[in-house]
Amino acid sequence: MHAITNIQKFSVHDGDGIRTTVFFKGCPLHCVWCHNPETQKYNPQMQFDEAKCVGCGFCARVCPNDAIKIENGKAVTNPLKCMLCGKCVKACPSSIRDILGHEHEIRPLVKELLKDQMFYEESGGGVTLSGGEVMSVDPEYVLALAKELHRHGVDITVDTCGEAPYERFQALLPYVSTFLYDVKSMDPEIHKKYMGADNARILDNLRRLSADGARIYIRIPMIKEVNATEKNIRATIDFLHKNNVHVAQVNLLPYHDTGCSKYPRIGMTYEGADLQAPTKEEMQEFAEMFKEAGYANTKIGG
Question: Are 210 and 173 in contact (CB under 8 A)?
């Protein structure tokens, strides 16, 4: 089993139709603008909204490991002592504590996902496996989940950054209808600076996935300081052409910072505060570049 942070129903931006998106915990990249920072670490972790803490002390009184103290009117948790037992979560009268990441056995998880099968079938939707990076977690669990969903006739989409061993993609390929594949920057140094790793394996996996017949949506988060330049878009198009990557759809996703409020609740600092989205006019120009290059099914947004 592997930790899952959220099962989001009625998603309309994570593939075709109405979908249920399963967010797995853990990612090998660390994008500075990450919208789901709670999925970066592989293990469960405590979320705590300090700004709303009234210092009542209920959490400290029920903690069996003496991990919580009240200092200057606020609860302070020692992460070395915290065993994530969840007693403080239940005791908090303000409901400002939560454990991020819970393990799910495959059979009950599939049962939950099948509850909305009628909506999948009527809308051309299904289940999207996302994260974090689903391809970087327990491959046997993910493969078993995909097989079981496929057995029930559920359409499966995988949302991936591509940073995982290719053998995992190969194993899933017979059960997955579409891969939502992130291509964040063609420059390996820029990629390393903003994503924490270069793009060599990501691009190699994209080439191989296309050669093996996968249906691929290229998704590009557009950020002025990172990749929203004519040079990068031209390099992306050239790469796709040169390597004969078959692209069913291109999605250009304008940068937004809606996830920044999550960071302080898990003890992280948002590093994307100075980033900006391109203007609507610039986004339209980038979309036209793709269309003129033969990618008629290019959309702005998810």
Answer: no
Q: Which residue in 68, 51, 69 sits closest to 263, CA to CA?
A: 51
User: Which residues does 239 contact at the CB level (< 8 Å), separation at least 6?
Assistant: 186, 203, 245
Give which of 250, 176, 265 is closest to 214, Cα–Cα. Answer: 176
pLDDT digit string (tens) for 45-86? 999 999 999 999 999 999 999 999 999 999 999 999 999 999
Q: Give me the chain's average pLDDT, please.
A: 97
11 strand-pairing partners: 19
Residue whose entry in the numeric block shows the structure tokens 């994570």: 14
pLDDT tens digits, one per residue of 165-220: 999 999 999 999 999 999 999 999 999 999 999 999 999 999 999 999 999 999 99
* Euclidean distance between CA atoms 97 and 269, whole angstroms: 19
Two structure tokens written together for 17: 């139709």
DSSP-assigned letter for residue 278: P
How far is Cα 85 from Cα 97, in angstroms, rounded to an integer? 12
Phi and psi angles of residue 89, each rounded to the nearest 5 degrees, phi first: -65, -45
Task: Look at the block and give the residue holding tokens 């063609």.
Answer: 186
Distance of CA 5 to the CA centre of its chain: 11
Residue with tokens 């499966």: 156
The rounded distance, in Å, linking the Cα atoms of 301 and 61 is: 47
Helix/strand/coil for 37: helix
Listed as own residue / partner, the contacts of 207-213 with beta carbons closer than 8 Å and 24 or more positions apart are 207/243, 207/245, 208/166, 208/169, 209/166, 209/169, 209/173, 209/179, 209/181, 210/243, 210/244, 210/245, 210/246, 211/244, 212/169, 212/170, 212/173, 213/173
